[in-house]
Write a structure and sequence with these properties.
alpha/beta; 3 domains; FAD/NAD(P)-binding domain
């Protein structure tokens, strides 16, 4: 029996799906949310939130080790990995409960099971008990997210070869850890396990770490991580030469030079692939490419009434992009007349390592490639009073402006709390702010935000504290 019509059916309850459900309900739509696992998806339960809790524990541990620099004497600096992991789980569970409360408050119906499309208005849900349930909806939003990309010669077993789930909940800290991939996930785990005492080696096939970031930020971050003891192989390939119960060895090759390295565990963090295998997209002709659903700037697929949001679609694969898309699609379905298309160049990227990395807009190389004449400003943490007072003097802010119009083209930064500082430039991008408008803005003193101002001043050769 097919359940009554819904206005919107959403498959997947991650940061795209649950936000779309809440916003659609707020707009008076009858909403059903289909989820086969935990409410909140990977981000809340296995990704964004628990990793930040782990990284906060690492940050506190690093501060304790530096206590003497702040005039504080400590007699013990003991790690308890069980308690660290336990805290991260509690944080995730608390937020998951909060999401469930919000869904109930907004009268969103939840059905647990795996959803597959029968048509552009019908879904069949296979429940854990084997029962099938069919529902119909005038609009369908696919928000099933993604999973780690597999590497053929490294089969994840949870013991010696990990994906992010195993890295999130270790029973012990490996003495030596190899990480495949130097994007945000790989770098965050490299930072965490380095703080926990592991000897960390990162392998990257491309020519530099954090390859989507501005090259100045990428190079600075690499030097900082190396000073902390993390080793990098970039522009490199590898093969497994030996695998035992508690040790694995890889042969690394770079420009003809070969080296064998060993570790107690390997974390595979080499990208993601969309969760679309069980959706039945081929039945109704939804277009895909390279494991992702193709959409336009309003998240519409090629099939009427079907939308796709979040990591199941094109990059960047970020939770805040998914949430923004969820709101946008809900408002489109509800008939809101002022919905604007997604602006990918306005989406920030954040890496929560130590030091942190954050960016928005064009890199310097990309701006030049596109033919812009540019003005570039930089300002170091070392010259900022608040950064020195906090004992966080490592990093810099870089801003890029159109030389002719003064428009902000991009902002890139590395250092303490830059994932918070980047928000100022996000507003600037949305409002098409110019260097003059930033210069005429009064930033509070003493704050780390003053570095944003000084970086813009630097682009106009007006910097004060340098």
């Amino acid at each position: 029996m097919v359940e009554k019509d819904f206005d919107v059916a959403i498959i997947g309850s991650g940061p795209g799906g649950y936000v779309a459900a809440i916003r659609a309900s707020q707009l008076g739509l009858n909403v059903v949310l289909v989820e086969k696992a935990e409410i909140g998806g990977v981000c809340l339960n296995w990704g964004c939130i628990p990793t930040k809790a782990l990284l906060r524990s690492a940050e506190v541990y690093e501060l304790v080790k530096r206590a003497k620099d702040f005039g504080i004497e400590t007699s013990s600096q003991t790690l308890n990995i069980d308690n660290i992991v336990g805290r991260s789980k509690k944080v995730a569970e608390k937020l998951s409960s909060g999401v469930k409360f919000l869904l109930a408050k907004n009268k969103v119906q939840i059905i647990k099971g795996t959803g597959s499309l029968l048509s552009n208005t019908e879904i069949v849900i296979q429940k854990d008990n084997g029962e099938n349930k069919e529902i119909s909806a005038r609009n369908i939003i696919i928000a099933t997210g993604a999973r780690p990309r597999e590497i053929s010669n490294l089969k994840v077993d949870g013991k010696i070869i990990w994906d992010y789930r195993h890295a999130l909940r270790p029973t012990e800290i490996p003495k030596k850890l190899i990480i495949i991939g130097s994007g945000a996930i790989g770098i965050e785990f490299a930072s965490f396990y380095n703080s926990m005492g592991s000897e960390v080696t990162v392998l990257e096939m491309l020519h530099r770490i954090l390859p989507t970031e501005d090259k100045d930020v990428s190079n600075f971050a690499k030097k900082s991580f190396e000073q902390r003891g993390i080793r990098f192989f970039v522009d490199s390939c590898f093969e497994v030469v030996k695998q035992e119960k508690s040790m694995i060895s890889l042969k690394i090759e770079k420009k003809g030079k070969k080296e064998i390295i060993s570790a107690n565990a390997i974390l595979v963090a080499a990208g993601i692939v969309g969760n679309l295998a069980t959706l039945g997209l081929e039945k109704i002709g939804v277009n895909t490419r390279s494991g992702m659903i193709l959409t336009n700037d309003f998240c519409k697929t090629n099939v009427a009434n079907i939308f796709a949001i979040g990591d199941i679609t094109s990059p960047p694969w970020l939770a805040h992009k998914a949430s923004h898309e969820g709101v946008m699609v809900a408002e489109i379905i509800a008939g809101q007349g002022d919905v604007r298309p997604l602006k990918r160049e306005h989406i920030p990227g954040c890496t929560y390592s130590n030091p942190q990395i954050a960016s928005v807009g064009l890199t310097e190389d990309k701006a030049l490639e596109l033919g812009y004449e540019i003005k570039v400003g930089t300002f170091p943490f070392l010259a900022n009073g608040k950064a020195l007072a906090m004992g966080e003097d490592e990093g810099f802010i870089k801003t890029i402006f159109d030389k002719d119009t003064g428009e902000l083209l991009g902002a890139h930064m590395v250092g303490s709390e830059v994932t918070e500082l980047i928000a100022t430039f996000l507003v600037g991008k949305e409002l098409e702010s110019t260097s003059e408008e930033f210069i005429n803005t009064i930033f509070p003193h003493p704050t780390m935000s003053e570095m944003l101002h000084e970086s813009v001043l630097s682009s106009e050769d007006k910097v004060i504290h340098l």
